[in-house]
Amino acid sequence: MAEQQYEYHVEPVSISPSELRDERYKLNELLNELAGEGWVLEDTLCITSSSLLFFFHRPIDS
After folding, report:
1. Taking the domains of the chain in order of start, what are their residue ranges?
2. 40-48 and 51-59: which strand pairing?
């Protein structure tokens, strides 16, 4: 049996610290939308206090 392969997606997000409360809901929408498309959150990288990268993967159908 062949080894499972994955495709990857990186989603950059910028959040103003003063708008964090409102932006949190947008982040939930983004994460839920991608999860609905089969993406699995693999990791999060904080670039600055207001810039994040979300790393996702999902299996490739063969």
Report:
1. 6-59
2. antiparallel
